[in-house]
Design goal:
This protein has 317 residues and is α/β, with parallel strands linked by helices. It is built from 11 helices and 13 strands. Strand 7, helix 6 and strand 8 form a beta-alpha-beta unit. Helix 4 crosses helix 5.
Amino acid sequence: MEEEKNFSWFEKRKECPGCSSERFKTVYLSRYDESPVKDYLLGFYLPQGMVEFEYLKDASYRLCECENCGLIFQKDVPNDAFMERLYEHWIDPKKALTRHQKENIGYHLSLEQEIIKIIAFIRKDPSNLCLLDFGMGWGDWAYEARKIGCDSYGTELSVERIEFARSNGVKVLKWDEIPDHSFDFINTEQVMEHLPDPLNTLRYLKSALKPEGIIKVSVPTANNIRQRLKNMDWKATRGSRNSLNPVAPLEHLNFFTRDALLNMAAEAGMKEIVIPLGLQYKHLHLSGGPKWIARGLLDPLRRNILKSQNYLFFRSI
C-alpha cells in the first residue's frame, strides 16, 4: 500500500465520521489523476463545468470501511477552499440552475406532500411550526413549507443558491445562527453523504430542536454496495445497478448502510421514529405524471415495510 501523504487541498480523516472508531480498513485505492478515476471525473464534471487536476496532484481516492459500524467513507476529503472551488466552479451554477428549472410539477408536488405528511404527524397548525432545510440547495423545500404557512428557514454554502432562494422569499441562516432558533423539524435531504463530519453535524442540529423535534435524514441507497465495490465499474451509468455514484469521488464522502445510519443516530443520542403507513397514504395525492404517481404509491412501502431506502426520521432519546 502506498505511503500516505498530506495534501494541501485535502484533509485526512483519522477516525470513522459516523461513529468515531479508529478501526477501519482500506477497500479501494486509486490516484485521482490516473485512470479509471480520472476518466470518471472527466465524464462527470466536464458536462457540468470543468475539472482542474492541479487540485488533485498526487492525491488518492481512498475508500475505507469502518469495522465498527460498517460506514464506507473517503479518508481524504476536500478542505473548505477546495469545496468552494468544486461546488461554485467545477459545477457551473448557471448550468446547474438551468437543470434545476427543468424539474417538473411532480417534483414540487412531492415536496409539498412530504411537508403535509410531516405536519399531520406532528399535529400542529402550520403557523405554529418552525422548520429548517439544512443544505437547501435552491431552496425548494423551504419555499414549499412557507407556501403552506410554516415559519421556514434554509441553510446553504453556495452563494448562487442562497441568492436564488432569497429571491423566492426563503429566509437563510448561517451555520452559527442555527442554535439561535428552536425547530420542530429539520430536513436533511441528500446532505449527510457530502459532509466531512456528519456525526457532529447531526449532534449540532439536534441541539437546535424543540424537545419533541424531528430530524429527517435521507441519503443515497445501494443495497448491493458490496457487489458494486467488487465490480468497481467506473463506466456504469448513474442510476444503474453497478453505478458508483453512492461513493462518488470528492462529493459523496460517506456511504451509509441503513445500520450505519441508525448507529450514527444512536451515537448522537437519537432514535428512529416511523410515520405510520395509514397517515402517509391519507395525505397522498396522486398527480404529477406516471413516474411520480408510482413513487407516491411505492415509496412508503419501501421505507416502512421493506426498509430498502435510507430515508429515516429521528427524535432525541
